Structures are given as structure tokens and as C-alpha cells.
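Narrative progress, year one. The postdoctoral researcher (J.K.) led the effort to move from monomer predictions toward full complexes, under supervision of the PI. The following entry was the first complex the group processed end to end, covering 192 residues in total.
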Amino acid sequence: MKLPGTWHRMVVLTMLVALGGIAGESFSASRHAASHPVVDSKGNLRVPDNYQTRYESLGAWSIAPKPGAGVAQMHLVYASPRAIEQFRRLGHFPDGTVLVKEVWEASTQSMTTGSVSRPSHLKGWFVMVRAQHNHHPESKLWGDGWAWSWFDAGNRTKTTSTDYRKDCKGCHVPAQMTDWIYVGGYPALKSN
Ligand code: HEC
């Protein structure tokens, strides 16, 4: 019987699983059905593979072009696996958490429930990766505890963002106290 060897393997395996559990998906080996990491070695982001089936749905926003008018855009927000449970436990998103915000043009039609808007045309994605310690201080897309990028629909791998301080940060100042994230829009983050 080679019990010690088996035992050793089990311990190592358990540790690996535990480590994978701590690091979010972008910094760990690909445990999930994703073939590409969200962050490459140079710190460039990409839109995560298959996030619509692998990620958790965080919430949605509807944007009216002017008060009183119908819905012009819908924003659907996803978070990497287990982010919601970890947020509820810790009160913040842990390192490696990936957030994806789809930006959709909306179309509105009359349905049996009333005047109903739905996503119709994808404009692109905002992607953020949590990193309290800045892994890429040389990049203008890393800082304030996150990596930040926008991707036009049709190009999931090459961002058009050049500097998060100009492209993103100003608009997220109202959410500065909650790590720059508009957490108030996501009922799932509150345990109920
Ligand atoms: C015009 C203002 C504006 C700009 C520019 C902007 N954001 Fe946002 N962002 C918001 C607002 C407001 C929300 C929440 C409401 C909504 O979606 O309309 C939001 C939500 C998000 C979310 C979902 C998580 C959350 O905070 O609720 C992500 C991810 C995100 N933004 C990433 C980015 C990134 C990355 C950039 C830059 C490339 C960026 N944003 C630029 C205003 C902005």
C-alpha cells in the first residue's frame, strides 16, 4: 500500500484547488472552459471567452436618451465565477475578479406586458479586472485597484482605450467610495 504517496497527492491537489479558488480567473491557470486568460503577460485585457455561460449575471441598467423618452441603451453586467458570493462575504471584489459590461442599443415594441425594450444591437464591452496591487504600473490602463478597457463589438482582443484616467475614471468618481464600482445597481450583491 502506498498510502503516504496517495495522501501527499491528495494534499497537493487540495492545495491547488484552494489556490485556484482564491485567485480569480485571470491570474490562475485556466480551471474553467476558457482558452485565453483575460490578462496577457503585458497587462493587455481581452473580453473573456464564453462569459455569457461561465460568468454570473450581476445586473442591468436601462438608459433613456432624455427624461421621459424610451430606452436607448441597455447595459448588462457580468462578474467572473463566485464574485457575488465573495463580495457578500468580504464586502468588496477580491483580486482577479473580472467585470464585463455589455453595451446594447435597445429596441422598444408593444408586447402583452406593455411597452417593452430589449437589447438589439451590441456596441461593445467594458472590461475591468480587480488588482489591488498594480501588476503593470507601466500601463496607462492599470491603476486605482483595477485594469480598465473598452472593446468595440467585433474586436474582443484589442482595446481602443489608451488611458483609463481620461477614458474611464472621471465618470466613475461618484462610485469612488465603493472601489469605483456602481455597486448600488446590483441587488445580487446584497444577501437577501
Ligand atoms: C460617460 C461616463 C462613463 C465612462 C466614460 C465610463 N463609465 Fe463605466 N460606468 C458608468 C456608469 C454611470 C455606470 C453604471 C450605470 C450604467 O451602466 O450606465 C458604469 C458601469 C461600468 C461597469 C459595470 C460595473 C459598475 O461600476 O457598475 C464597468 C465594468 C465599467 N463601467 C467600466 C468602464 C471602463 C473600463 C471605462 C473606460 C474604458 C468606463 N467604464 C468608462 C459611467 C462611465
